[in-house]
């Protein structure tokens, strides 16, 4: 498996206002650099392919930050949009369509043999349960599950450069890696952290037909296209797949939100 390098990083760290009080003294805490990768699904059929894990952004956090604060700073488009089939492009994409994190609040981070679960919501479930049971049956090892709410980064002992996993929305998996840990040498302000310090260049998915407008809809299993799924803008979707407001053929339609 290959990983993309970091030459496309864009620093976005903002300076702190002079009025903020520096409450972290030099030599009393660490800054961790955590690399977050885009969701990646390794399928058995293409395990020998050239698919790369693609870097998304870098988060800086201090030892006093909890794991919940770190995962709250992880941004993923699957937290914003519920993947629900709609009848046409006229559907009201209200806020209910864009609060997937509220609908499915369960999250877990796997670091050094421990699954840290987010139980802050009463609707949260243990995403690690099936994995731990499977590992026990296969005699792979005995993994531990616990709440992440009271776990601070300073309590962890991660290996630098080693891949760990962040799971949310059921099966959306991100590889994460602690790339650096350094002692704070200058007075700093704890409320600055965690923060996104840099990110990779992003490109919007363009419409499959016109290639001019960003895609807003995903069309699946349509016999008018050579691919199983294509991404279309609203104009092309309405003009090519609908006539007088009705579908011209059978297909599945889903709202699509670019990862921006």
Number of helices: 4
CATH class of the largest domain, anyone?
A: Alpha Beta
Indicate the radius of gyration in whole angstroms. 21 Å
Percent helix, as a range, is 10-25%
Enumerate the spans where pLDDT stays under 50 for 5 or more consecutive residues.
1-5
DSSP, total strands: 16
Largest sheet composition: 9 strands, mixed
Q: Under CATH, the topology of the largest domain is which?
A: Structural Genomics Hypothetical 15.5 Kd Protein In mrcA-pckA Intergenic Region, Chain A
Cα(first) to Cα(last) distance is 26 Å
Beta-strand content bin:
25-35%
Estimate the global geometry from the Cα principal axes: elongated
The CATH architecture of the largest domain would be: Roll
The averaged pLDDT comes out at 84
What's the domain count? 2
Question: Main sheet: which strands, in order across?
Answer: 2-11-5-3-10-9-6-7-8
Instruction: Determine the structural class based on helices, strands and strand pairing.
Output: mainly beta
Subcellular location: Nucleus
InterPro entries: snRNA-activating_su3
Subunit structure: Part of the SNAPc complex composed of 5 subunits: SNAPC1, SNAPC2, SNAPC3, SNAPC4 and SNAPC5. SNAPC3 interacts with SNAPC1.
Organism: Acanthoscelides obtectus
